[in-house]
Amino acid sequence: MGPLTTHVFRLATTASPGEVWQVLTYGDHLYGLVLVSDWTPGSTVEAGAVGTGHHLRGEVLAATPPHRLSLVFGATHLTWEVSPGAVRLFVDELDGDCDEQAVEVWGPVMAALASRLAARSLGSEPAAP
After folding, report:
1. pLDDT at position 128 over 90
2. Which residues are CB-neighbours of 44 under 8 A, at least 6 positions away?
């Protein structure tokens, strides 16, 4: 195994931590993959895109609604930390990407999250179930 690489991404937001949590746990911000889980530590998290055949299976490592969500998919460990006014995503990977590649991979995830949160604040997106 190679070295552990950590990348941190930040997003400023006017959304409440609860609103961010809803988008993280019910949204399709992860490359259009809808995440499904009961969000308890040790539970499976399924990530799939309707009609595309893309499917990932991971595990919930930690969940403290609405402030912290930690997931693992293979050699990639994702931790979302949510506080009033900010969201941070920590991406830990074995044999991970260089900084430029990480921005190419995870930058769109953060942009999609920002877009989903903005749509909610404008009232153009329905609330999660």
Report:
1. no
2. 37, 57, 58, 59, 60
